[in-house]
What does this fold into?
Amino acid sequence: MRNKINRVAVVGTGAVGCSYAYAMLNQGVAEELLLIDINEKRAEGEAMDLSHGIPFAPTPTKITNGHYSDCTNMDIVVITAGLPQKPGETRMELIGKNKAVMQHIVSEVMASGFNGLLLIASNPVDVLTHVAWKASGLDKSRVIGSGTTLDSARFRYLLGEYFEVDPRNVHAVIIGEHGDSELPVWSQVDIGVDPLERYLRRRNNPEDKQALQDIFEGVRDAAYEVIDRKGATFYAIGMSLTRITKAILNHENSILPLSVYLEEEDVFAGLPSIVNRGGIQQILMPELSEQEKGWLKQSIQTLKEITHGMELKTNQ
Ligand code: NAD
It folds into this structure.
């Protein structure tokens, strides 16, 4: 039995925030969930609706709605507030609208005396994680973006579907920007205990090369495809955020492709990192092929141009 009460606040009770809260409730991850939204009535309604499911949850969770001043004792504040992409809109095009929202939210959270971890999902997530870090004054290890966790899940799912193996046995990451310049680390993909190259050699299927290229493009463009059909993406990011939250609260030292601060480049970007209750413990730069190195450089350059082009309100 846990003797520590895990407290998590969610700012933004739209599609992503509520999918996260729903996944958290169903997986019994935290004892307390606080919902905050500029639309207070909506947050209240969501807290009521979710609470009505508590008798069917694996563990008791107290779900309330409230204000930034209630964030004082939270272990994690997860920020999913802001405008989502419209059909055809890139994540980067959201920066103008979502930067001010992020700065406002983080300064309100910090004013409560909050001293936990910030987990950012709002897009463009790498740039907004930088905005949140600057506005918070927290150590870089304690401000984390969801990064390419969702993209990597999509990658593993599509590879698993193609090779007809459980995606949990596919070890593969997407790194860089959570967006159009992201890249697959093909050189480090493992299917079970086989490096991809050996697995492909054994299959000897001439269609694999094109299929793998299509899979990556499917990952990179997945959000556009889903948004085109249903207007938004929210369930899988809700589950991705839940996975990250578990790694933090359960002190797992899990390796996840999170958006983390790269000192030399002065940007946040998605890279496999060890995460636990203290936040980011170590960034694990994979060994990349020359081609992958070039792609990553380009992706980081894209993030640098946007991040460094912004005027950042700082609390540091
Ligand atoms: P949504 O419109 O359904 O919900 C956004 C919520 O934020 C609304 O409830 C709104 O009232 C609230 N909000 C807006 N301004 C606020 C403020 N100043 N303070 C508090 N709350 C405020 O949008 P959504 O579909 O839930 O998407 C939310 C964000 O998540 C978007 O930026 C979207 O692009 C992003 N997203 C990220 C990923 C990822 O992998 N990181 C995946 C999907 C979506």
